[in-house]
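With this grant's support, we have paired protein sequences with backbone structure tokens. One protein thus recorded is set out beneath this paragraph:

_____
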Amino acid sequence: MSALSSEAEDGSSCDGADERDLPCRASGLVSAKLTIVVGDTHFSEEKMFLVQSCDYFRALYRSGMKECRQEQIHLRSLRARGFVIVLAVLRGEKPALDGDDIVEAIECAAFLQVALLAKHLINLIDSDNCLLMYHTAATFGLMDLYHAAALFIRNMYTDLEAEVRKSLPSEMISYVESLTPSVFVAVGAHVTCGGGETVHAASRTVCYLDETGNNWKVLTDLPLQASTSMAGVTVLDNKLYIVGGVHGLHKQVVEACFCYDVEDNSWGRISSPAQLRYNLSLVGLDGRLYAIGGEYERTVMSSVEVYDVKTGKWEFAAHLPRPVAGAACTKAMSRIFVCLWRPMETTEIYEYISRKDEWRLVTTLIRHQSYGHSMVGHRDNLYVIRNGPSDDFLRCLMDCYSLSSGQWTSLPGHFANSKGSLFTAVVKGDSVFTLNRSMTLEYVVDGKTWKPRRQMKGFPRSGSVWTFMLQLPDALMLQ
């Protein structure tokens, strides 16, 4: 097992807990050590660390059982290597896991109820380990991982079906096939359509690609008051969000923000950020929307606001290191990254550290480039896509940054970028879908290379296009 040491980036913390979860503080839990025996291996850890980090130990020290007073606890059903992985993840590391590691990690995550480890395992799902993840999660009842692995398999079913039918029991195959695969969805840049204006209303549609029929179909119409022009558009928990945007010749900001729920096939309003903005970047992660930078009254901003879906409230977060509009953002390994580009040579990648509410410089890339870039996260890699040299700007160059190794790699060759197709790249399983008016092109991510796989129909809209993945209910796709 190899491990990448880093701080916990998902907002969970091992320093500072809810007082309700620390019933033994007064009896010396803060500084007490506990020896955990797993197999023949002894681990010495702070009790407070274990109680704050792990539901099993939290429940144990709430129970009042005799184990609360013991200095040594035996975990007889687990194996030492799995517990090593648990401790690594709880300390903020992002270990890479092979087959044996995965099995033992899932066993420990289920028995000790370690949500952070389950989340890390979900981030590691790929074409090579998804069947193992799925079967082992079923065995130990780790249901979040079970569903995530099944959905990954469903999204890659063309490649995996033969192996699935050979290696999985019928009930597990049935569950995979009962899931709706993610579909490629696109919406053009449209301003509001209020005041009785209906001339352009027919084109204000969100569409999805029917891969079987190689055709684009209408999913829903945009609300008349919604603008996708210079707006923040993203998907979170299978819901589409639109924040900000502009209308009119003078780029008047749109205050109304919207959410589309595919399950109900309905649009609803959400509250607006305290700081109205357009040309922002919008990212969704762990039940929150992050509105990053943007402009207001033609002034570029560095402010960031976070929307909690459960509470329906926006709160300001740490400012970016400098003002930015239309920044390239992505998610990878349940972490948020943003590119701050300094023309014409330098791209800086920052990560938002939620538990510390700060932006941390991850890496700097210096490359000669003409203009523009986007960023795509896949597994533990960040792909930065930029225009080629100024005499060949319709082709793209791509660089890959590995979060695990901290190394940059230039992908070989140029990628065709007629009218910005790669700037709309989104991930589905181990594939990347790109789009322009001429074609939809699917790449397979193999190692750190992108290999063209198939070409489908382009999106018949001019101007900027937003793309993303959604799981659509069968009823919607049958309309």
